[in-house]
Amino acid sequence: MSSRLAGKVAFITGAARGQGRAHAVRMAEEGADIIAVDICEQIKSNKYPLATQQDLDETTKLVTELGAGIVAVKADVRERDQLREAVEAGIAQFGRLDIVVANAGILPMALGDPHASDFVDSTDVDLVGVMNAVAVAIAHLGDGGSIIVTGSTAGMMPGTTSNPVMGPGGAGYSWSKKTLIGYVEEMSVHLAPRFIRVNAIHPTNVNTHLMHNDGMYGIFRPDLEHPTREDVEPAFTHFQAMPIPYIEPVDVANLAVFLASDEARYITGQQIRVDAGALVKFPNGPTSL
């Protein structure tokens, strides 16, 4: 532990597991206290299971064991009032706010049974949820703070999550992640006078539930009736220039720690990929999915 975030407080959405938990743990390792929120409920259109209260409790345990403080709140990023209450509870406990990690996201895939509402659910979480998290935090962020948005390398490519086979939910995910690029750049300009940085991290495939589910396996191996993890890993590996099937959540969190630290004090408005070379390999989209 190098205490790069000592004395700072981080507000993290989608913190119960996956990338969000990795952000909470890594930032706690570096000395930050954590305000952690997650929906801890299922969204009907999202076919793979979302995080539970037990998952959020586990994040709380991991952060606490590191000696950091944590305020963990069950909250839906689609509901701005719920996020506002969570931030206010954290500030009441810790007295400040320095970092926002707008991470919560879903990828509904109603394969064979598409609904326009899947697009709505996806954009409500992946785009509006990010904007809600930033909106409730801005007034409380100290000068020199850091806002970090989770984007997607796949969302930057044509023919991936925007592929019609992914349905309206995939289209909503892709549109949201692309729209966040402009949002980050706009917000970075408007918050620059306060030295608040706004940056986006765009991961490739990440070893989380969003990647490991039957729907995603079927997308990558449509030639098989019931593909397994072992069946899809060669196809996952094809997606990156480096020969790996996916990165780990901590690989994303390591970059977030840097962007949240004073080492990145003049880095803002950036779109930074942690993608093992996926976009440079397929700048016009993958040859097959």
UniProtKB/TrEMBL annotation:
Keywords: NAD, Oxidoreductase. One of its GO terms (molecular function) is oxidoreductase activity. It holds the Pfam family adh_short_C2. The keyword Signal does not apply. The keyword Transport does not apply. CDD domains: SDR_c. Signal peptide: none annotated. It comes from the Bacteria. NCBIfam families: PRK12826.1-3, SDR_subfam_1. Belongs to the short-chain dehydrogenases/reductases (SDR) family. This is 3-ketoacyl-ACP reductase.
